[in-house]
Amino acid sequence: MKISSLAIMVAAAAALMPVAPSAREIKIGVILPFSGESAQFGDQISRGMQLYYDEHKSELGKDKLVLIKRDSKNPSGNVAKVEAQELITRDHVEMLAGFVYSPDAMAVAPLINEAKVPAIIMNAGTAQITTMSPYFARVSFSMWHAGYTMGKYAAEKLHYKTAVVGYTDYPPGKDSLAAFKAGFEKAGGKVIDAIPMGGPAQVPDFTPFFQRVKNEKPNALFIFVPAGAHAAAVAKTYNDLNMKADGIALIGPGDITQDTQLGQMPKEAAGIVTSQHYAADLDNPQNKAFVAAWKKAYGANSTPDFMAEAGYDGMAAIFHAIKATKGDLKPAKVMASLEGWKFQAPRGPIEIDPKTRDIIMNEYISEVVLKDNHLAMKTLDTVPGVKDPCKALKLGPCGKH
Ligand code: PHB
Description:
Layout: H1 3-16, E1 25-32, H2 39-56, E2 64-71, H3 78-89, E3 95-98, H4 102-115, E4 119-121, E5 136-138, H5 143-156, E6 162-167, H6 171-186, E7 190-196, H7 207-216, E8 220-224, H8 228-240, E9 249-253, E10 273-276, H9 285-298, H10 306-324, H11 331-338, E11 342-345, E12 348-352, E13 359-371, E14 374-386, H12 389-392
Parallel strand pairs: 1-2, 1-3, 3-4, 4-5, 6-7, 6-8, 8-9, 9-10
Antiparallel strand pairs: 10-13, 11-12, 12-13, 13-14
Helix pairs in contact: 2-10, 3-4, 5-6, 10-11
């Protein structure tokens, strides 16, 4: 047989064989803050995403994941919106991910509705965000997970009767106030004052706000601030004003005890109690492996926090969607694959609630303790399988739906 006819026969045989889908590039747009004070948040989430990717990339076969990262710059939502628009129309991303600040996720909702682009929320915590688009799935939290849980715990287990709430004055702060109040008052406590404490972009001087609380003498001061330098300043002001000696306990969501901020707080921060779904000190096998891999990749003095962990879990969700759809990332298929997705995460078992596309996870009541002369988080109690109480119990802003 002549070589040319052999070649034709081989080619003809190949044409009859099932064709493996060719390797392709999957573009994901990642919108996070990468400048100013909040750059630390963008870095933590990016590093969490990268860690999962590095550990699991062989599972994608020949497909290549391309992350196109954009800096959301400030928490207004304006920059994030323009970037989402460009990522969708120019870069043709198949999914979006990231979103530290609630206004960023909220501003992007109409765009993903229009273009039908699935978006994985890796931080932004205002409860209603997931109701703004059927293309949102949230791997982070709703402010109600921590706020409502802390409110109930403060009244039932810590036996506080009165509390004042201080909050950064934008959607997740207002949500935290509503969440804490609902849980605390349901269990018999009373919120006697609520103090707006400026916007998220700048860390305010907390002294005048805390001085007001000192005069009011509640059993507890519940604070929401958007983590970072705000959190360290809260602990410092509480200590400077000697409020522990006044018998006023400092409590809040874990945003005020972010792992990366504990080193910036005075030792007297020991005793703060928070409700949160993640702390680097959580004692479970997945978290031990996660923290060890993190330190190996990013340095022994580096620590993951709840944002980093959400980046890791968010990338796990993206991998799941790619594998479950065999790379055919049609929006409806992606969302169907995410609804009910379960994962054994560093924070414990998680699931995307198929009804709400919000996260179901454990809440840990933790206390800041002094351990080997540094501040650490000690778990006091675990509330398993918490669904966003705003939606599950139809409370506050979710009551109308
Ligand atoms: C938010 O804007 O939703 C947000 C930001 C930082 C946090 C928590 C929530 O620590």
